[in-house]
Amino acid sequence: MKWRVTVTVRLKEGLNDPEGRVIGKALRNLGYAVDGLRVPKCFEFELESERPEEEVEEMCRKLLANPLIHSWEYRIEPVS
Amino acid sequence: MKWRVTVTVRLKEGLNDPEGRVIGKALRNLGYAVDGLRVPKCFEFELESERPEEEVEEMCRKLLANPLIHSWEYRIEPVS
């Protein structure tokens, strides 16, 4: 069966996100009252699988994220 | 009023996404039947604003995306 998968990988709470800090500062300099800007890493793909949750969790641990510094979440929807 | 904003910036349809191609290939080499992997750019932040949609649209045009090559979408939710 075919699935549409969206994975979001975030730095764990408290870890420094320099890219987010710079972009947040640039937006404030443009006059927007932005706070706490973070730049998570996103992945969107289609997956042919009989056990999609298990496979996506494996992909995150093996390749898409670093369990030491990242947390992740995913959305898995059937492709019609 | 305070809002929680999530912006997703994607390369327009048909444009080359080399990072996505490499990651998709790596996942297939690990044995996953992954197809069409893309790596959109995501931004998550809080915004203090009386006209959040207008401001977020401006931010995308001015800084977060390049209208020539990107499309974008955003989700804006009130912070309780």
UniProtKB/TrEMBL annotation, chains A, B:
Protein name (Swiss-Prot/TrEMBL): Phosphoribosylformylglycinamidine synthase subunit PurS
The UniProt record lists the keyword Manganese: no
Job of this protein: Part of the phosphoribosylformylglycinamidine synthase complex involved in the purines biosynthetic pathway. Catalyzes the ATP-dependent conversion of formylglycinamide ribonucleotide (FGAR) and glutamine to yield formylglycinamidine ribonucleotide (FGAM) and glutamate. The FGAM synthase complex is composed of three subunits. PurQ produces an ammonia molecule by converting glutamine to glutamate. PurL transfers the ammonia molecule to FGAR to form FGAM in an ATP-dependent manner.
EC code(s) of this entry: 6.3.5.3
Binding partners and assembly: Part of the FGAM synthase complex composed of 1 PurL, 1 PurQ and 2 PurS subunits.
Catalytic reactions of this protein: N(2)-formyl-N(1)-(5-phospho-beta-D-ribosyl)glycinamide + L-glutamine + ATP + H2O = 2-formamido-N(1)-(5-O-phospho-beta-D-ribosyl)acetamidine + L-glutamate + ADP + phosphate + H(+)
Annotated HAMAP family: PurS
Pfam families in alphabetical order: PurS
Keywords: ATP-binding, Cytoplasm, Ligase, Nucleotide-binding, Purine biosynthesis
Naturally occurring in which organism (per UniProt): Thermococcus gammatolerans (strain DSM 15229 / JCM 11827 / EJ3)
GO biological process, one term: 'de novo' IMP biosynthetic process
Keyword Ligase: yes
